[in-house]
């Protein structure tokens, strides 16, 4: 028979519990990431487009979140696919003060904390390629950045 020290016997359940906690998948990566957007990442054909809606994986804090929209300046030969559009949009940043792209003034409806943000324009957006860049503080206390790009064909479909 083996002799054990009393302190070690009491420590074993705590060590086991800690091992189970570490091995259990959790929500360590639960920062606010973009889950959906309207218009989607595509070529959209909507007359009178005035809103861009972003849906994040968790609520974001308005006071510490920034959203900027840009009408992208396309290369002379245009773009052939969404990969090229995303490459162009990825060059933007929330802190970019000087850009070859035209910043579009949009108002955010984010109040307090919400996972859904709608950006509004007083006038319909003209046809073109757009990117919205953001830096958001999620309620879990982590900051994430990203962008959403789409092409607005400026057609005659129903408006948003």
TrEMBL record:
Q: Which UniProt keywords apply?
A: Copper, Metal-binding, Signal
Any signal peptide, and if so, which residues?
1-28
Top-level taxon of origin: Bacteria
Provide the GO MF annotations for this entry: copper ion binding
Binding site residues for Cu(2+) 2? 140, 142
| Pfam families recorded | CopC
What does the entry give for GO biological process? response to copper ion
Binding sites annotated in the UniProt record for Cu(2+) 1: 31, 140, 142
* Entries under SUPFAM superfamilies matching the protein: E set domains
Domain CopC: where?
Answer: 31-150
A cellular component term, taken from the record's GO annotations: periplasmic space
Q: Know the name of this protein?
A: CopC domain-containing protein
């Amino acid at each position: 028979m083996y002799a054990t020290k009393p302190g070690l016997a009491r420590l074993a359940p705590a060590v086991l519990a800690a091992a189970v906690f570490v091995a259990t998948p959790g929500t360590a990566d639960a920062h606010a990431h973009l889950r959906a957007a309207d218009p989607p990442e595509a070529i959209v054909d909507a007359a009178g487009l005035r809103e861009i809606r972003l849906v994040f994986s968790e609520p974001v804090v308005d006071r510490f979140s920034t959203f900027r929209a840009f009408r992208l300046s396309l290369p002379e030969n245009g773009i052939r696919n969404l990969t090229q559009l995303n490459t162009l949009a990825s060059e933007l940043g929330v802190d970019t003060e000087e850009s070859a792209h035209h910043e579009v003034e949009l108002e955010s409806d984010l109040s307090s904390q919400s996972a859904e943000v709608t950006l509004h324009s007083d006038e319909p957006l003209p046809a073109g390629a757009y990117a919205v860049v953001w830096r958001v503080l999620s309620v879990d206390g982590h900051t994430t950045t990203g962008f959403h790009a789409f092409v607005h064909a400026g057609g005659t479909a129903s408006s948003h």
